[in-house]
C-alpha cells in the first residue's frame, strides 16, 4: 500500500549517524504520489514534538495538532529531508497535514535547499 504526499507516519529512523534524528518519529511525506507508488524510496521531512523545540527557527515549521491529526504540536525540521525505504512505513498514517501547512513546509524546504 503506497504512502501519499501530505500524510504523516510514525517511523523508526534508526540506525542513524551524528546529528540525524533518531528513534520513532513523525515524518511528513513530501515526495509526489507518482514516486511513492514505485518500489523506490519516499522523501520525507522529520518532525519532533513541539515541546522539544523552545523557539522557532527559519528552517522549521511548527504545526498545531489541529492541522495534523496528531495528538501533539509538531515541529517539522525542513532542513533535514530524508529518503526512506517504504518498508519503514506502517500500513496506515497517523495523520495528515492540512493544505496550508503543507504549503508552508514546501516553502521552507525550498529555502533550505536553495530551490
Explain this structure to me?
With 115 residues, the chain is α+β, with helices and mostly antiparallel strands. It has one domain (7-113): SH3 type barrels (Roll), CATH 2.30.30. The protein has two helices and six strands; from the N terminus they run ββαββββα. A six-stranded antiparallel beta sheet has the order 4-5-3-2-1-6. The longest helix is centred in the C-terminal third of the chain and has 15 residues, at 99-113. It is globular, with a radius of gyration of 13 Å. The mean pLDDT is 90.
What topology emerges from the helices and strands here?
Elements: E1 7-12, E2 24-29, H1 33-36, E3 42-49, E4 60-63, E5 74-84, E6 95-96, H2 99-113
Antiparallel strand pairs: 1-2, 1-6, 2-3, 3-5, 4-5
Rg value? 13 Å
Given this structure, which CATH class is correct?
Mainly Beta
Q: Strand order within the widest sheet?
A: 4-5-3-2-1-6
Overall pLDDT: 90
Give the overall silhouette. Answer: globular
Number of domains: 1
CATH topology: SH3 type barrels
The main β sheet shows up as: 6 strands, antiparallel
What is the number of helical segments per DSSP (H or I, 4+ residues)?
2
The chain-level structural class is alpha+beta
- First and last CA, distance: 31 Å
Unreliable residue stretches: none
> Percent range for helical residues?
10-25%
Q: Report the CATH architecture.
A: Roll
| Beta-strand fraction estimate | 25-35%
> What is the number of strand segments?
6
User: What is the string of SSEs from the N terminus onward?
Assistant: EEHEEEEH
Amino acid at each position: 500500500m503506497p504512502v501519499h504526499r501530505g500524510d504523516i507516519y510514525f517511523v523508526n529512523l534508526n540506525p542513524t549517524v551524528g546529528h540525524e534524528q533518531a528513534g520513532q518519529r513523525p515524518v511528513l511525506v513530501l515526495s509526489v504520489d507518482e514516486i511513492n507508488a514505485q518500489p523506490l524510496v519516499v522523501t520525507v521531512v522529520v518532525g519532533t514534538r513541539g515541546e522539544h523545540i523552545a523557539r522557532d527557527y527559519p528552517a522549521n515549521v511548527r504545526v498545531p495538532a489541529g492541522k495534523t491529526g496528531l495528538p501533539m504540536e509538531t515541529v517539522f525540521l525542513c532542513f533535514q529531508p530524508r529518503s526512506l525505504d517504504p518498508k519503514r512505513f506502517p500500513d496506515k498514517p497517523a495523520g495528515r497535514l492540512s493544505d496550508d501547512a503543507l504549503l508552508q513546509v514546501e516553502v521552507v524546504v525550498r529555502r533550505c535547499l536553495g530551490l
